[in-house]
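Hello forum,

I keep getting stuck at the same step: I have a sequence, I want structure tokens, and every attempt I make locally crashes halfway through. Rather than fight my setup again tonight, could one of you with a working pipeline run this one for me? It's a single chain of 194 residues.
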Amino acid sequence: MKRYLNLTIAALVIVLVSFSCLRKGDNDPLVSLRTRTNRLTGTWKLISGIETTNYTSNGSTSTSDIIYEPGIKKMTASGSEIIKSYSNNITFEKKNNFTRIIVEDFDEIKNIGSWTFLQKNKNQELRKKEAFLVSITQNETNGIRTVNSGLFLSELFIINRLTNKELNLKGKTTENYTSGDVEVKEYELFFEKQ
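Reply #2:
Ran it on my machine without issues. Output:
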């Protein structure tokens, strides 16, 4: 009986270690019966988050913060605060189609395009399917459509946690402009599946 118990415990440990190797993100669930694609597929609503942008021009840096709370967006820059009504809903389809609808005060912005998981990148220290790229091919602002041809507007998102019900994106981007200006944006966004 004792030998059977030891074998069962050893088998359980091996199975758990095997499953933990399948995790894509450090904060993902230990065990999931759904693939990352199946967990990401669906409509997600932004429930909270923060973005901090540092813009450096001619040696001077300015900082702005955006705080997202349910139904509102608070923007702070140079000691001033602006509060707007806000919602952000993103839909990812299995066939890699993407739609994002942002409503800010009375303006509705709809982005349409495609998404794809990125492969492992040692230079960026990213594991396979730890980040995804969104390519926006159409924009609609208050019903006026703009179609992007040639170069697409793309956004890169790094997944900090992905379960069937929650999506946490966290990252940092740096843009170097030809003028010598530098913009560094750090973000952490929390979405809930609808």
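Residues 115 and 134 are 4 Å apart (CA to CA). If your local run keeps crashing, start a new thread with the error log.
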